[in-house]
Write the structure tokens for this entry.
Amino acid sequence: MNTEDGKRSGRPKGVFTDKNILKIHKMILYDRKLTLNEIPDTLKILTERVYHIIHEYLCMRKLCAKWVPREFIFDQNNDELMIRSSV
């Protein structure tokens, strides 16, 4: 019984490269109001791949029509809780 995967036809997962991640990050930093559909048109990759890069690799999300890091949201919530608890 062989448990190894054989070679498969199809496209390799070459979208998640450091080059593409850096390009997407620069695009978002340049224009935080950039929509999710504008990025794949520029880079010629699928929207779902761009979504995955933004959320998993860059740890960002859309808030009030702007891309922000997830840690920023967490820090804001933490500050708000500390203010409420001190009052």
The chain has a mean pLDDT of 75. The two ends are 67 Å apart (CA to CA). Residues 70-86 form the longest helix (17 residues). Residues 18-86 form one domain.
